[in-house]
Structure formats: C-alpha cells, structure tokens
Amino acid sequence: MVLFQVDIQKQQGTEYWTNRYIIDETDLTAAATKADLIPGFEQLFHTTNVTLESYRVRPLAPGGDMYIIVPLGANGLYAGGDLSSQLPLFNCVRVDLAVTFGRPSRKYYRSGLTEAMVVGSSLDATYRTVVIDAMDDMRAALAPSFVDVDNQAIVNSQVYVPVQMRQLRRGSRRRTEPII
C-alpha cells in the first residue's frame, strides 16, 4: 500500500485554499476512486457561496510527477443563513481526527461561516451536528483507507466548539490564482 495526498481546492470570491487528506491505497487509480467521495461530504457543511473547484491526487512521498486533477465546480450545500452576514474567511471550523496512538490529525475548514451558524464565540449546535455527521460518514465511506501521515487509521472525529481563526496564508501576498 502507498500513501496518497488528496488536496481539495476551494474558492470564494478571489480567495483560494485547500484541505489535505491522506489515503492509503494500492495505486493512484484506487486512491482517486476514494478521493472522488470526499467533495460530496465536504459540500454538506460548506455554504452555497463556497465553491469546491477541483481536487488533486498524488503520492505523498516527494518526487515523481504522477498525479490526477479532477475539476469539480460544485458549490456547498449548507444554507447557513443570510450570506451577507458571513464572517471573514479566517474564521474556521476545527475538526480533530483521532488515531489510535499519538496526536490527532487536525482540519480547519473555511466553510463560509455566517452569524446564524455561530452563537457568541461558539459554533451553533445544529451546525456542529451537520459537520460531525458528514465527517463520520466520510470516515466510514473511506475506511480503511482514510489515514494520517503516519499511516494510522482515523478512528473518530470531533468538532471543536469554539470558532477557530486561521490566517489564509503566511506573508502579505494574497493568493488570487488557483493552487492546483
């Protein structure tokens, strides 16, 4: 088995960003088949003004130029209230993906949070349920291939209650072109 990196590229307005997943499969084609499932689960908790642009599957090991890029152009499906009350994109949803031993993998999703999805400084309970259900369903659909960088199976997922803040990128340069 080989570890593959799956990058799901998203866009809102002129901003682009990615989320990375690790898949343990026999070859690039098998990894791409598993990767094809991920955007559908992510759509469930991204708002309708966030576009899942494309995804790329490539070996995790450095070197080599074998990869697959699949265009998507699919919008999120979550109707999270009035999109004119959207919080800045540095406001994120944190999901911890637990493994048997060691530190959990951590994902920060710029899901297009709106004021209706947040109560005080915490994520609304209804929205947290949508996120955790989507992550649990994704974990089940990808099992046993869904792993962390140490090739440990993801065994559980937990949504962190407070809204998290993550800068869009390091440095002062704004990314206005696609990453993939």
The residue fraction in helices comes out at 10-25%
Helix/strand-derived class? alpha+beta
Beta content comes to: 35-45%
If strands are numbered along the chain, what order do they take across the biggest sheet?
Answer: 4-3-1-2-9
Quote the average pLDDT: 93
Summarize the main sheet.
5 strands, antiparallel
Number of helices: 3
SSE topology string: EEHHEEEEEEHEEE
> Which overall shape is indicated by the principal axes computed on the Cα atoms?
globular
N-to-C CA distance: 25 Å
Count all strands and give the number: 11
Radius of gyration: 16 Å
Number of domains: 1
Describe what you observe in this structure:
The protein has 180 residues and is an alpha+beta fold. It has one domain. 18% of the residues lie in helices and 36% in strands. The strands form three sheets. A five-stranded antiparallel beta sheet has the order 4-3-1-2-9. A hairpin with a 2-residue loop joins strand 7 (118-119) and strand 8. The longest helix has 18 residues, at 125-142. The radius of gyration is 16 Å and the shape is globular. 31% of the residues are buried. The mean pLDDT is 93.
